[in-house]
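Structure request: Flagellar hook-basal body complex protein FlhO, Siminovitchia terrae.
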Amino acid sequence: MLRGLFTAASGMYASQRKTEMLTNNMANAQTPGYKADHSHVRAFPEMLIERFNAGKSRTSQVGTLHTGVYVQEVTPRFIQGDTIQTERSTDLALLDRADGTAFFSVEQNGQVRYTRNGKFTVDPSGVLTTENGWPVLDVNGNQIRVASDEFEVDETGRVTENGEQVALLGIVLTDNPENLAKDGDGLFRTEDDAQLPFAQNTDFTVSQGFVEKSNVDITRSMTDMITAYRTFEANQKVVQAYDRSLDKAVNEVGRVNG
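Returned structure:
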């Protein structure tokens, strides 16, 4: 009986984690460059149940017993989001043109991180930064400095002011973006903090005055959330049924009459 209780409880916990993930996706539906997470739910190994026959040395198989499920991992989906025009010179959008996903390089506390959120700004010292203040890097790993926000960026990532090139955006490309881990503030990192290779001009297109929207599908997220809630509710009822059975076993079946 207790095994069934644990199985239902594991289903509740898995549904709760999925609901939290979907809630976070919906909360970031308007965040530029945000990549929606999706969960991988796996089942624990099944157990083979056997019955000992009275007076016999052999056992007979009853069948298998499921031992519950768990969320193995949560990974982002790197599907290209739609772009929206903002007409701000500091806003940049990446459009993938090759097999793989391109990212802007930024510096976070001395470490190189990657982002699809091209909603940039220029700080008081003239450094091009993300909304959270992380400097955007060029192909040499240096911070990009501009005189004002009136600079121009062509489709290859070349930054110019008054007709002169001041920097080339450090845009990288990976064929396996699923191996990247989220690092907060819309940033990603490699598992071993190794730097990704720089992309070729034919791998991407930069659009100035545009930003990439979140790729969260609100309708699908709402449907998945309702399903996760119903699954949680069904497992909760199973736990309540086990609780009533255990209560009866302890307080009624196990009662000793004086």
